[in-house]
Specification:
The structure holds two protein chains of two kinds.
Chain A lengths: L2 H24 L4 H8 L9 E11 L2 E8 L11 E8 L2 E8 L11 E6 L5 H9 L5 E4 L15 E7 L3 H9 L2 H4 L1 E8 L8 H9 L3 E7 H4 L7 H4 L7 E5 L2 H13 L6 E4 L12 E5 L4 E5 L5 H7 L17 E11 L5 E4 L5 E4 L3 E3 L3 E3 L2
Chain B lengths: L16 H21 L2 H25 L5 H27 L24 H12 L32 H10 L1 H9 L2 H6 L6 H28 L4 H27 L17 H10 L8 H6 L6 H6 L8 H14 L9 H14 L24
Helix pairs in contact in B: 1-10, 1-13, 2-3, 3-9, 4-6, 5-6, 8-9, 9-14
The chains are: A alpha/beta, B mainly alpha.
């Protein structure tokens, strides 16, 4: 065995020992909990970021410039990050496409957020978030990315904030390597996010930009592509926008037998509308039950033979909380609805909560 | 409902079943108003308390590295005592109640929190949240009534062992966290019933053992060792801080349910209890401590024991805000809101411990038949 091979584990052990020793002083909390007070972005900390700037893009969209912590592993153009921010004191997680090019010299990244009507998180990010705020991040993910061999001809079909992952690709220099056509829909000219930058790219001939202003011209029918971009089916296509547009695009490319050429990003995959009762799945136990709006999740689970943690059964002891992975539940005491989208894992009290739609319970 | 001092008067005889349900509705409304308004301000509060506590604890421990110098010993010990009190009372107790779970911050959550206490968080949550808060002051169900070693209610049968209870209480105060740990794992019951080999109990005991080891290693080995020549003085400092923290939390907690004016309840009185009756039991079974804002923070807002028992999962900083509304409700329905300054309440609780170490004076007579929770002859 070589000396270099044996030295490395020793180093790790020394660091581990140091941390363990520090842990004996800080117990019951971890040394990390103290370090978080002074250096929340340090290496080894859970991934976080600090808001450096909030730049308005349109009347309802803004770009957040983020200094990510040392744990940031970088991203590929087109990928998204999950971002956790406290809104009214409650940690909320949402996914946003990275709009900056990878490997910026200052190490910063940006995401661009469009405020959706009644959107609790998006409105907070666009209108109230202040520079200096600490946010929580996940590493970049998503396969809405360019292949390693850049295709010669590319078509982007986007609408609204669907431009954001595409902007990440354009800013990483795609337009210099490929023949790019971008067909983008927005209500008006002023609503086009990155309008100025896109038009400048088009002006210098880096891409062909087709803007569709839907307030005056109506929604784009996929069939219109034949006239707008005659060679559209010969191009490798990426589409991002509302679900209706994506469904239409998938139908169109399928009917032409070319569905493998179309890549889509459903950037708002789940819209949860709370109702009364619903199908409850206990994912770990593999049990699915139909539950009405008056039966607690605890009763529903126990009746189905799921081994549920429980305590006071009246909402005071918190002995029954389990993660709601997705879906909606209603607090039977006051009617408050809690929703979770995939990736969330909101902890809910099963003894006072009933299904308010389809729910996945992690148990 | 029985009354601790064998008062002839049933304190709720004037309430009809309807009144009780209206009280419940009014309390629900107070709770809903807080929930509707709960948000960023509350989150900022708890984060500030946590940050203050951690800063204070680490800087006090740093000062104690030089505890050989008497001024450093005094400052460090005082700081560490305050930090430990904050950690147990305003932070630990309340986080473990789930008061901050709504923030969805995994770092401040009842399911992930562990506290500076020899009783592991999950065991404490079970005995405290699930049993004490549910069965508050029900004789025979709520073991917080005397913790199984003392007699704090006339209706608890006297035993010669109780003669020593002023001493037990003093020892319990000094080593309160160990008393709590023994209580949470139901050590007494298992000793009495010779069930020490029960696998569930053994698992609990092992968890307590691990927790004690970590706590003792920190306070009495690692920290003194780091102090080098100040080894012994730092050891004395951490021991003092733990002792003072124990006596403080024991005093505060005694004031919650033992002082004069607090009612206890029969096992049978809670059968088929309604939401309104549950609320009423919490109202009559708890006592507050009056005092300054600092006192309230140092008690973890358990000085608002009544409000805490009504709404165990509301953020602790809100108890002070809703207290006037709760008190007004007591007044409107002619109920006694038990409160008083700390020395008075502590003395009252201690007097009861001393007084009930002897058998009831009227033991020759049959105990007064307890009244039902809802008086039957309502108009």
């Amino acid at each position: 065995m070589t000396t270099t091979a044996s030295r490395r584990p020793q180093k790790v052990t020394f660091r581990d020992r140091l941390l363990r020793l520090a842990g004996t002083v800080t117990t019951p909390v971890l040394p990390d909990d103290y370090l978080d007070l002074i250096a929340p972005l340090r290496a080894g900390a859970p991934l976080r970021g600090r808001i450096v700037a909030v730049r308005p893009e349109t009347r309802d969209a803004a770009t957040l410039v983020i200094q990510p912590g040392r744990a940031w592993q970088g991203h590929l153009p087109g990928q998204y990050i999950r971002l956790g921010v406290d809104v009214d004191g409650v940690r909320q997680w949402r996914a946003y496409s990275v709009t900056s090019a990878p490997d910026a010299p200052d190490g910063r990244i940006s995401v661009t957020v469009k405020a959706i009507p009644d959107g609790k998180v998006s409105n907070h990010l666009v209108r109230r978030l202040r520079p200096g705020t600490l946010i929580h991040l996940d590493q970049a993910q998503g396969d809405f990315v360019l292949p390693s061999a850049t295709p010669e001809r590319v078509l982007f079909l986007t609408a609204g904030s669907g431009i954001t992952p595409v902007m990440g690709m354009l800013r990483s220099g795609l337009a210099d390597r490929a023949d790019v056509v971008l067909v983008h829909s927005a209500p008006t000219r002023d609503d086009v996010i990155f309008g100025t930058e896109l038009r400048a790219l088009a002006d210098r001939g880096a891409l062909r930009l087709v803007e569709r202003h839907t307030d005056t011209d109506g929604l784009l029918d996929v069939a219109e592509l034949a006239a707008l971009v005659p060679d559209h089916l010969d191009r490798e296509a990426w589409a991002c926008g509302p679900i209706g547009m994506l469904d239409a695009a998938e139908g169109y490319w399928s009917s032409n037998g070319l569905v493998e050429r179309l890549h889509t990003e459903r950037f708002r995959p789940t819209v949860i509308t709370p109702g009364e009762g619903g199908t409850v799945t206990f994912t770990g136990a593999g049990v699915t039950v139909e539950s009405d709006g008056a039966t607690t999740l605890l009763d529903a689970g126990e009746n189905a033979g799921v081994l549920m943690p429980s305590g006071c059964r009246m909402g005071i002891c918190f002995g029954c909380v389990v993660p709601l992975r997705q879906g909606a539940v209603r607090d039977l005491r006051n009617g408050d609805v809690t929703t979770a989208v995939p990736g969330d894992g909101v902890l809910v009290q099963t003894c006072v909560s009933a299904a308010a739609g389809t729910c996945d319970i992690d148990l | 409902m029985t009354v601790i001092q064998k008062k002839a008067v049933n304190p709720i005889a004037h309430l009809s079943a309807e009144d009780i349900e209206i009280i419940g509705k009014e309390l629900d409304a107070i709770r809903d108003r807080v929930l509707a308004d709960r948000g960023e301000r509350d989150a900022r509060y708890i984060r500030k308390v946590v940050k203050t506590q951690r800063t204070l604890e680490m800087s006090s421990r740093a000062v104690l590295l030089f505890s050989l110098f008497p001024p450093a010993w005094i400052v460090g010990t005082a700081g560490l005592t305050v930090a430990k009190i904050l950690e147990n009372m305003e932070i630990g107790h309340n986080v473990l109640h789930g008061q901050w779970d709504w923030m969805r911050d995994p770092k401040i959550h009842s399911t992930t929190w562990e506290w500076d206490h020899v009783s592991p968080a999950d065991q404490w949550k079970q005995s405290h949240n699930e049993l004490h808060h549910r069965y508050t002051n029900v004789v025979g169900k709520d073991n917080d009534l005397g913790y199984g070693i003392m007699r704090v209610d006339e209706d608890q049968p006297w035993h010669p062992m109780h003669l020593g209870q002023p001493l037990w209480n003093l020892i319990n105060a000094m080593f309160f966290e160990y008393g709590i740990a023994a209580y949470d794992m139901e050590l007494g019951d298992h000793l009495k019933q010779r069930k020490l080999k029960d696998p569930k109990f053994r698992a609990k005991a092992r968890a307590v053992g691990r927790k004690i080891r970590r706590q003792v290693l920190k306070d009495y080995v690692v920290h003194p060792l780091l102090s080098g020549p100040s080894f012994l003085t730092t050891l004395a400092a951490t021991f003092t801080a733990n002792l003072l923290r124990n006596v403080w939390s024991h005093s505060v907690i005694m004031c919650g349910h033992f002082p004069n004016g607090v009612e206890t309840f029969e096992k049978t009185s809670i059968e088929g209890e309604t939401r309104g009756e549950w609320y009423l039991r919490q109202m009559l079974g708890s006592a507050n401590i009056s005092g300054s804002r600092l006192l309230h923070i140092m008690t973890g807002n358990l000085s608002y024991q009544i409000e805490h028992h009504l709404f165990p999962d509301l953020p602790s900083n809100r108890y002070q805000e809703i207290a006037p509304q709760v008190r007004a409700l007591f007044d409107r329905y002619g109920l006694h809101y038990t409160t008083g300054p700390l020395p008075k309440q502590v003395a009252s609780a201690w007097w009861k411990v001393i007084r009930l170490s002897l058998p009831n004076r009227n033991d020759s007579r049959q105990p007064v038949a307890p009244a039902p929770l809802v008086s039957s002859g309502t108009a």
